[in-house]
Amino acid sequence: MESIPEKKTPILVVDDDVGLLLSIKATLISKGIPEPALVSDSQRVIDLVRKHRFQVVLLDLVMPQTTGMEVLQQLKKEFPTIECIIVTAYDDVSSAVQTMKFGAYDYLVKPLDSEKLVIVIDHALERYHLRKGLTLLESSQTFSALKHPEKFKEMVSEDESMALVFHQAETFAENDYNLLITGETGVGKDILSRIIHRLSPRSNGPFSAVNMAALSKTLFEDELFGHMKGAYTGATATREGFFEATQGGTIYLDEITALDSELQGKLLRVIQERELYRLGSSEARYLDVRIISATNLDIKEEIEEGRFRTDLFYRLNVCHINIPPLRGRKKDILPLARHFLKIHAEKNQKKIDSLSPETADCLIQYSYPGNVRELENIIAASTLTEKEKTLTLSSIPGLISSFASSLSHPYGLSTLADLEKEHIHRVLESTNGNRTQTARILGIALRTLQRKLKAFSTPKSATE
After folding, report:
1. Model confidence band, residue 136 (pLDDT cutoffs 50, 70, 90)
2. What is the CATH number of the domain that holds 81?
3. What's the pTM?
């Protein structure tokens, strides 16, 4: 028997028992795992892996043609990143040790427990992508090596650190596993999530973006899961939630760490079971949705402080991309500034087509607490006041003007941190202490502003 699904699958199951192959296939599909490829002839395994590039191979140890141990050794020699799970009818410690020595990920004994089987395959897939991600991190990447550079035109970049991000995006777009994007406010997590969706096999499906920080306890289930007519007062018609509306596509859960701990448990159940119940309904609805989540906080710190569930983190963080802050990729500042200048000059019917050397110098030196979003805000505001064809310092808001002033005094230079602090306090004063408005002007999240203000008021000795 040999069965290869039309839709690309990461899993190959090898066993001479056709009945067991079909049983494993049914179990995996019922748990929301992609349909596996099946083969009963162990001599076909290497050729199939060469052709289809599977990520996990479930391999019977005892087979009449080539034994599982022999296939395992061949696989790990030619494809060392593939995760192999051995299946055997005998609970033999020596055999288990031997398979691990040859590189097997795990060892399962027949009859197979369906729950354990699913968990082991899930973990093997997670490990495969983790190792793949580490390989990407260990090697330098170039923009010229991208398969689809045109897909990233919204994220103007020339810095090598973003070449790595783009390569990770292309790699993770090919699979269907949950992805976590981390990075400060304003670095472009939302844009990257949309690019990944467009690069993925789900590109023809819908894309939904949900800000988790905006969902209260009362709105969470209604917005994400939907409701039936009459489920509560005011529910005059049945309505599907974001998850159902995104069937066959990608759902982007922004600010995932802002979700209340009780709601985290409800989200975890949906991810694990791949099904949900609308409010007022007892009918389970199967989900076919890829989840991309994002946070601007240190999620490991949130877990340590008890504000975010560890089990939910592992479900969301099968694949991970971190977008560096703009101050850490100086080569991107001027290309982005010129990109935004072109956009906002056209929008405001201005003929501004360049940056003065002084303006360019100040833009490069600034620390951008609001990252790319703040840079765009600076350029957008400056195009309104500039009268010439070149963007000059006189048209830049007080942020850059004050920075330029400090640069003109070689013996009175301020640190970027001090300039950031000074500017935040100046904007705060101009809004009469309105933190929400201040955060909006700065182009950062309110929680980010609050965290910075708290850090400013903490004595250095208390943080050392």
Report:
1. low
2. 3.40.50.2300
3. 0.67
